[in-house]
């Protein structure tokens, strides 16, 4: 018996390697953005029945494994507080170097509050550029103001 | 005698409060994006002579303090590895929840490599939205491929 | 010159001791809940002009110190990740022991998402009880659902 | 042979997924609050004979597994000191931002002491709200005063 | 102006050195156990008016410093999670080596619950012993049972 | 083949659950205090031939497992530096809050040195008390003075 | 089914021991530097089809295992932030002792920016020396300047 | 009175900024490599009388400050175990990603032992390159073999 | 197939327990000091062919396991940075309490440099003493001076 | 007024630099080993009246500072759990690499127990050696056996 979501995630990743699937193709099947679908397959988001069945079909999951895709997971995908992987570290470095800057500018524009990480979407695009193609990541989150009470 | 860049940064921030300056106005004076200028004033970037003089003028810095703005700083603006401030934590959470997703999708598009945090720019915009205005942060970095050697 | 909000917070706390003020009285003056006003005086929330002036008057703050009360602070009030103070540790223990329980029950009722800590309020009450009076803390936060994108 | 309570907890969670049980139904069977029963099933509380048998029946536990439910567990349900899961992190953030505030206000009302996390109960309710439903968590703990000795 | 309790604690310790006071004498003046009085002077407990005045007199505290003795302190007296001082480390080692043993035996006797660290007293005695005198530390805390709710 | 003492400890604990043994009964069989015997069974102390055989008989250990009981273990029974279990945390809190106090009072009585955690014994007793029964833990260790050399 | 790249890495290392291969020979087969090929075999770099097949042949990998060599790995090869192995620690010590020196001298020569760890190569050579042979490690990385934006 | 080497280092750095000195010029005056001299000025190495006097002259140090330059310092120049500064982090990343590779290749060439970080030198050079100039760092350390004893 | 040196180490330790071997006897067979041989058997040192065969014979290792004894291990034998085992902690405490003292005295005698931990030997002896036998540990390492470059 | 022992230690170290004292000379004046006297001057041991007066005379301490030398200090002289200074790190590495070995051999000789770090002495000697002089550190501690109770 599958004991937790992690085992399903590992099976999805292993099946992706052996079958040679791409996240783009998976997203197209599910009918949502590649960003959200990948996060869901990596065990960070919860799928509804239809989504879970499609993902299950693509990754050869059995009925019980598909059920796990519909359970809200314990989120957080990094093995260490400061990530060791260079690609992910660069994102961490952006927060380290520019974090206070982002904070200052959002507060200057909106006042006290935060950019939501829940009412949130993300879009990753390649920008063709003669000086070397660029990765563009658009983070979009609803501004949530603190309120007096 | 000023002992380090941090003291200059603290003076800039304190002067900003007492004079009521905005980063937008500072950026306009310097003639660069508000994101870069704010990061520089917060002690994360190095200014050239002209930029340093303008910043010095706005924040009442003396000659010696202005010199420090031209020295490459020890970067990293956060007091703890996992940031406690809610606004900055949300950015950290985005990496925690979506970090592997971003990694997967960049590799699927570009192969092995990273998004540079040096050949990098950032743009923060308000998006008017009837369901609540949104913060849009565009991170743009050159893709740097690993090469065999 | 005041260098940061922390110095203002320390002055507020020291003045409270020397003048013998209570948070309840401060809250009454400001006209908001004791929970929010205390958090603001402790450097976690941002005050508007009127609130800042009232707080400034009560704690003998000068004009420049009052300005700092209107600047969004770097939040987070604990010196260590696991708090050493017994009263605050008990709250941490509640999360440690019951955190997964709270997660399970909120998801069972609402689906995937979180209880907001921004669109949030808190109410602390004494409950008279013959077996020993109780502290009742009501945490109330808007449910924010994850959305597909 | 079952080696520890954790294995029983994992079996309970896996069975819940495969059988599609809800904590509400489990709580109703056991005849106690959903908060306490869920905590117990998640390996944080100790059940008596009757409770253990009911839980065992619902989750298909064998006799030896049921015995483990009656053993006092090593408590603490979080894998890291600062929780990575967004829902649980928000609770941690509340302590980080409002912890000193709660401390100040309880001491102002009760003097030196703590809110017990043992003589304690918790109640989680949905509040219907046109601006978005809210999660209300009531924490109730006996005040325990420090005594001179 | 005194900024926090720590400064008062430091003055107490420094005065104790320069005046050559003993904790035993201080305790006798205050009229409580040496354990509780020492903890209070070290900034871990809260004194009432009479106790604060006596302590203030012994340590040459001014009126404002005496007020701080009556404020509930942020408790926890160790600079690191694992204490480096050999005497204090031995206590930590006792918990490390015998902690689970103590847990097992208290639960075997009392069921699920804890020994209170609030409704608590401590008594330190010298035991004369021909094989070398011993330190006897008696920790006494009320048993607090977990209750279903 | 058994690989380490931990596996034997786990078998002892699991057998205790399935057979319903108590530490008190085990201690009586071995003929030593319940505190020492429990610590030994939990993998913190080393047993001699006779003790190991008795423990082995009670917990159905085979000859090889019994040999492990006679090997000096790697001691330390806690999974984290700051223990998450509430009962054990209270002991840690006692050190955090009263550690410097204990240090001051032992030094005042004995001079520079420590209370041994090796030439040490521990006694846990229930104290009947109308206000609620108490747990009394007596820690007794030989005082070891630092010597000049 | 292979669950992750780590399992393939472990098989490569175990096969290297049992077959007595050298990294030099493996590198010669693959036709690239010993530094890059070793890093790839240790699960830090991504191989193309031809490289993966050659490595697969040398280490008796099956078709599925070979596929994993072509998947971008989660990088970072050290089990702790500060490495315990003496050889690797010496490299860490070089950064600890000389890190600021390297930073100062690169900035003095190039201005603000970094030495890339992606557009990077490494060459390890033995230097024969009568006073004892030396290890020479040449790190070569493209300088990447920060740019205003 | 100067209390420690750190204060001298801070004075050196501040004087360098205000006088506009370069490490290259300082090294030329002292007559040693820029790498070693910079490390010494940054408080990591010990100077002899002649070197200390030259450095003292360049940085306006008084007699007592010059004495500190001749005292062996407590080494280690980084404020955190994992460095936050991007330039220094890249060096850390090289160890993280290639550390085991370096270990494997040195052992394959030399057997068990280490590259010394004491009998060590470092040379930093700019390599002109049409694809972008490169930073070349040559680390050279004597190989020290483990010996049986 | 054996996956790593750790598995061989665990087999050696388990076999030592089941066969009742002593390190002294193992050392005599190998013909080197008990300190070096024990370290090697515990997976910290590398054996040559003859040593590995002797160790393999004593501990019933097969041909493949013997090969692992000849592979340079990833060194470092402690599960936590601050060791929990009381015997090993005392060594750590010696460094904590006397570390700066040792540093001062070696520098006073030798100048700047270190005591090698590679060109190193260790000798552990019992000293009979009427006041209680003593453990004498002699650490002997070549002094390695820092050199200018 | 001196606030703590640390300030006295800093004054001793600064005076040693400015007056050019050696620990050897200080030890001769005090009439004890250089190891113990240095540790005491560095704030790790407690001096008696006569020793404190001699140390006070050598380092120009006033009466109040001399009093601090007679107060038992909070021990532990390292700023981080894993020391960054190379000389001290080598000692830590010895524990990391050989710690389990030392444990095994002491237990094989003495049974379960520890080498005391309190009933302890240390002797540091230069050994002239044609292959390079060596540092010999003899650690000598009374063996303390665990006893059943």
CATH topology of the largest domain in chain A, what is it called? 434 Repressor (Amino-terminal Domain)
Strand content of chain A: 15-25%
Would you count the extended β strands of chain A for me?
2
Overall spatial form of chain A: globular
Write down the overall mean pLDDT of chain A.
96
Architecture per CATH nomenclature, i.e. the level-2 architecture of the largest domain in chain A: Orthogonal Bundle
Under CATH at level 1, the class of the largest domain in chain A stands as: Mainly Alpha
Cα-atom radius of gyration of chain A: 18 Å
Number of domains of chain A: 2
Largest interface: which pair?
Answer: A-B, 67 and 67 residues
Annotation field: number of helices of chain A: 6
Q: What is the subunit arrangement here?
A: homodecamer
Strand order of the largest sheet of chain A: 1-2
**Major beta sheet summary of chain A:** 2 strands, antiparallel
Element-level helix/strand string of chain A: HHHHHHEE
CATH superfamily of the largest domain in chain A: lambda repressor-like DNA-binding domains
Structural class of chain A: alpha+beta
Could you estimate the helical fraction of the residues of chain A in percent?
40-55%
Distance, first to last CA of chain A: 48 Å
Pfam families (chains A, B, C, D, E, F, G, H, I, J): Cyanate_lyase (PF02560), CYNS_N (PF21291)
Enzyme class (chains A, B, C, D, E, F, G, H, I, J): lyase
Family (chains A, B, C, D, E, F, G, H, I, J): Belongs to the cyanase family.
Active site (chains A, B, C, D, E, F, G, H, I, J): 90, 93, 116
């Amino acid at each position: 018996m599958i004991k937790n979501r992690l085992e399903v995630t590992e099976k999805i990743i292993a099946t992706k390697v052996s079958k040679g699937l791409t996240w783009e193709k998976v997203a197209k099947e599910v009918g949502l953005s590649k960003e959200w679908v990948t996060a869901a397959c990596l065990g960070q988001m919860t799928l509804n029945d239809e989504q879970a069945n499609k993902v299950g079909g693509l990754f050869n999951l059995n009925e019980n494994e598909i059920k796990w895709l519909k359970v809200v997971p314990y989120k957080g995908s990094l093995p260490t507080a400061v990530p060791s992987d260079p690609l992910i570290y660069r994102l961490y470095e952006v927060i380290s170097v520019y974090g206070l800057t982002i904070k200052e500018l959002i507060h200057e524009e909106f006042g006290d509050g935060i950019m939501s990480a829940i009412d949130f979407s993300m879009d990753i695009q390649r920008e063709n550029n003669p000086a070397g193609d660029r990765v563009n990541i658009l983070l979009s989150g609803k501004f949530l103001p603190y309120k007096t009470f």
